[in-house]
């Protein structure tokens, strides 16, 4: 692109402000209102794609197939197909379409990132760090003040008040108190931003990296620790344990994560039955939320055995629950149980929900898709692989204990997590390319060691640390 053309291109010219601005406001706004994640994911992806196309990336490069994308598309197609036998056909069809759209959007935007201007990517990663710190500050203030800012906004604009006042106390049209659990989604969004931010900081020179990384980690650990979201706390601890292992041997850890992901689907049913048989749902030393989950898990696991091959259909747990409640007319609530024996609105466990709603076929597809995504981390620059492994550990922990797997904001928040990681990882790729170009200039055009001129043309492919990355 010529200098004159770039001067009129507010998106793709060197140092253009739009992408860095988006990488600042997106982590902040999604932490303030997680349900903005779908809209912001679409905006970020479109801007990245348009910028890359205007810098000369062939549009076919955005659609290049890869095993991870194909595996996720297979899950989406099967979820949509389950509408044929689903208790809630519309939900199954819409969730399949959602997953396919999110997958296509994220992978197309990921293919666009390497074609962006290097300085623009550096500014975007720094903006990501700044936006994440502001997000952590906002969530910390809300937790410490029990939602003072959110309460004020809801009272000024009543349209923001939720229809379901389960965790928001409203008297005479005014919000008087917000339970801390209302901010669990906000906390999870901040937790997702931890490892992309630390990866971004790892690209800085040694002195600044050490100076900033520890305060950044502590700043994001504060809202997670203050919250009532046990899943994010488990994810934080687990990912902190994975990081040093991955720094020592990233390839082994990544392959181990792929294996454990698959084992999760193989072991979830027997573990649920075992926990219930051990009467952990009656253990006073466990939090009430954990005891409730054990009841939900065991009851849902029993229902899996009723339709083990195909399941009840994607996102059909609420519909199946309503059908069962109507047939039973009265819920079974044994003495000492913190809630009735029920499936709940979802299984609070991605592995179990896959079994219940998609059956054996779907569980196999989700296991393969997750493993394919994990193994694709091996194509990242080696410096980025430990952070990617820690980020996946955070996601897996939250997915194993928290929300339903089809929640729109959650799927899109994970998509943004992937783009944050790839943007920061691309800086290592840029550095490797600059080093290679410098070596080529030193060797001279006639050197027998010069790379083949007919090498890979796709700007998303390069080599770093001896391994191909995409």
**DSSP helical segment count:** 16
Low-confidence residue ranges: 1-15, 444-470
What is the string of helix and strand elements? HHHHHHHEEHHHHHHHHHEE
Anisotropy-based shape: globular
**Biggest β-sheet: count, sense, barrel?**
2 strands, antiparallel
* Rg on CA atoms, Å: 23 Å
Q: Can you give the helix content as a percent range?
A: 55-70%
Give an account of the 3D structure:
With 470 residues, the protein is mainly α. It is built from 16 helices and four strands. It has helices at 3-7, 18-32, 37-54, 67-81, 89-112, 118-144, 148-156, 184-202, 206-226, 230-248, 250-277, 288-304, 317-328, 350-376, 385-401, 408-443, and strands at 168-171, 174-178, 462-464, 467-469. The strands form two sheets. The protein has a two-stranded antiparallel ribbon with strand order 1-2. A two-stranded antiparallel sheet has the order 3-4.
Can I get a quick summary?
The protein is mostly helical and 470 residues long. It is 66% helix and 3% strand.
List keywords for this structure.
single chain, 470 residues, mainly alpha, two-stranded antiparallel ribbon, 16 helices, 3% strand, disordered N terminus
């Amino acid at each position: 692109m010529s200098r004159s053309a770039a001067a009129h291109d507010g998106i793709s010219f060197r140092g253009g402000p739009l992408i860095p601005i988006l990488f600042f406001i997106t982590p902040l706004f999604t932490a303030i209102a997680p349900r903005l994640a779908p809209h912001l994911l679409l905006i970020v992806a479109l801007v990245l794609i348009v910028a890359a196309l205007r810098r000369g990336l062939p549009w076919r490069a955005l659609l290049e197939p890869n095993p991870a994308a194909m595996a996720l598309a297979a899950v989406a197609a099967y979820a949509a197909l389950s509408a044929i036998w689903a208790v809630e056909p519309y939900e199954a069809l819409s969730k399949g379409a959602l997953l396919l759209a999110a997958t296509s959007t994220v992978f197309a935007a990921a293919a666009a990132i390497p074609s962006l201007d290097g300085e623009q990517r550096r500014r975007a990663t720094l903006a990501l760090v700044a936006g994440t710190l502001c997000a952590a500050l906002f969530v910390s203030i809300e937790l410490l003040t029990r939602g003072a800012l959110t309460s004020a906004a809801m009272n000024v604009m009543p349209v923001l008040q939720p229809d379901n006042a389960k965790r928001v106390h409203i008297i005479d049209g005014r919000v008087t108190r917000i339970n801390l659990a209302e901010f669990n989604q906000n906390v999870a969004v901040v937790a997702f931003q931890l490892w992309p931010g630390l990866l971004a900081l790892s690209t800085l020179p040694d002195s600044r990296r050490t100076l900033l990384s520890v305060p950044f980690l502590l700043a994001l650990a504060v809202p997670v620790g203050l919250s009532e979201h046990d899943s994010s706390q488990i994810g934080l601890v687990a990912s902190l344990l994975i990081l040093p292992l991955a720094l020592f041997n990233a390839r082994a850890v990544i392959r181990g994560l792929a294996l454990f992901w698959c084992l999760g689907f193989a072991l979830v049913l027997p573990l649920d039955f075992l926990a219930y048989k051990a009467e952990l749902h009656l253990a006073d030393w466990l939090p009430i939320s954990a005891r409730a989950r054990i009841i939900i898990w065991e009851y849902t696991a029993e229902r899996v055995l009723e339709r083990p091959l195909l399941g009840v259909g994607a996102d059909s747990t609420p519909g199946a629950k309503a059908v069962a409640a109507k047939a039973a007319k009265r819920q079974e609530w044994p003495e000492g149980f913190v809630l009735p024996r029920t499936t709940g609105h979802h299984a609070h466990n991605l592995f179990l929900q896959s079994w219940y709603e998609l059956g054996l076929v779907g569980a196999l597809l989700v296991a393969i898709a997750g493993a394919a995504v994990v193994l694709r981390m091996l194509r990242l620059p080696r410096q980025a692989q430990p952070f990617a492994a820690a980020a996946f550990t955070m996601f897996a922990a939250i997915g194993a204990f928290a929300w339903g797997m089809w929640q729109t904001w959650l799927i899109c928040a994970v998509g943004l997590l992937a783009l944050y990681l790839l943007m920061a990882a691309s800086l290592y790729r840029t550095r490797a390319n600059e080093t290679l170009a410098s070596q080529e200039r030193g060797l001279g055009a006639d050197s027998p060691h010069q790379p083949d001129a007919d090498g890979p043309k796709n700007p998303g492919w390069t080599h770093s640390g001896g391994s191909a990355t995409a």
